[in-house]
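Issue 218. Parser rejects a valid record. Input:
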Amino acid sequence: MRIPEQVILSALQNGACIKTFYRASARLAGSTNRRIPDGYVMESPGERHEVILSQTDFLSVEKRLAETETWEQIVGIVLFGGSTWTLRPDMDD
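Output the parser choked on:
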């Protein structure tokens, strides 16, 4: 079910962040190619549960976000990674 853009933006203005994650072959480690996420989760401070977002939900607000953190870890032959996204400071009004 699609989450309205305004609901996502409101949560982000109140301190929420969006976390993306992916998995790929470990042979791709160190590559500068942009990874296509396998999933999107919005976490809000003070909330016990996260909200699962669709790719469409994420794309509706992506231009207003800043990637603030990235990570990658190899486990066996699989590369796991992800990013944390927050509302860009110039969009926080």
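Fixed in the parser; the record now loads. The CA atoms of residues 40 and 54 lie 6 Å apart.
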